[in-house]
Design a protein that fits this description.
- By secondary structure, the chain is an alpha+beta fold.
- It folds into 3 domains: about 90 residues, no CATH class; about 60 residues, CRO Repressor; about 60 residues, 2-Layer Sandwich (CRO Repressor), CATH 3.30.240.
- About 50% of the residues lie in helices and about 15% in strands.
- The protein has 9 helices and 9 strands.
- A 5-stranded antiparallel β-sheet has the order 6-5-7-8-9. A 4-stranded antiparallel β-sheet has the order 2-1-3-4.
- Helix 2 runs parallel beside helix 4.
- Belongs to the UPF0702 family.
- Pfam families: DUF421 (PF04239).
């Protein structure tokens, strides 16, 4: 059976198919580790080609029991290695491997030749502007088609919402929520990062659940405003 799994066979049993699929799935996970986070975001043309190629290749080989497992593994890891190399070259020499942002609107004026060059119709452009909450061209200062294929819109100052600094409103520092209890386990590192200790946490839990400790609570999150979100996993949610 081992030889049939590796070399492929039209009479491959169901168990062998399961093993082949599991191996190919693990290989895909390893390939994404080689290509790193850049590949997951599909930031450039060659990243997209590699992602599409690997996925289609793996899918075909998964459903074809007669294909060689070794051959497809070699192809997957060759794809991943070449992609890692091209991504490295892209970082070092971005103009060699990738495209640059194309201006579609400059100083409020639509650039027709760039629309034609990028095969974007006026209806496409207006639809993208509406998605960016810029329904009127008179509100727009500049629009760029990024190398990722996304539209980036910069509104005119008069059409942009005022910032807190412009309105002389004090801005609170950016604070991310910290999960301090999950499934009855206290996350000591998160608690310390938030500036609190276990004694403080147990006191907050007692205030909500007098008969319980932190290890009896399903979920506890210190939110951005400093309040503690608590859920026993069975009852109503409380904030302490």
């Amino acid at each position: 059976m081992f030889e049939e799994i590796v070399s492929g066979s039209k009479d491959l049993p169901l168990g062998g198919t399961v093993v082949r699929v599991a191996i190919l799935y693990i290989a895909l996970i390893m390939a994404t580790r080689i290509m790193r986070e850049r590949q997951v975001g599909i930031l450039s043309g060659h990243n997209y080609l590699v992602a599409a190629g690997i996925v289609s290749l793996a899918a075909v080989r998964m459903v074809n029991p007669k294909s060689s497992l070794i051959e497809v593994l070699v192809i997957i890891f060759t794809y991943a290695t070449v992609n890692a190399l091209t991504s490295y070259i892209d970082i070092k020499y971005p103009r060699l491997m990738d495209r640059i942002a194309v201006p579609l609107v400059l100083k409020g004026q639509v650039i027709k030749k760039n629309l034609d060059a990028t095969h974007i119709t006026l209806d496409n452009l207006l639809a993208q502007l509406r998605l960016k909450e810029a329904g009127n061209l008179t509100e727009v200062e500049e629009v760029y088609l990024e190398p990722t294929g996304k539209i980036n819109v910069m509104k005119k100052p008069a059409a942009s919402p005022p910032t807190k600094s412009q309105m002389n409103i004090a801005a609170n520092p950016v604070v991310f929520p910290e999960v301090v209890i999950y499934d009855g386990r206290v996350q000591e590192a998160s608690l310390k990062r938030a500036g609190y200790d276990r004694r403080w946490l147990e006191g907050r839990v007692k205030a909500v659940y007098p008969e319980k400790t932190a290890t009896d609570v399903f979920l506890g999150i210190i939110e951005t405003d400093g309040s503690l979100y608590l859920s026993s996993g069975e009852e109503a949610v409380f904030r302490a």
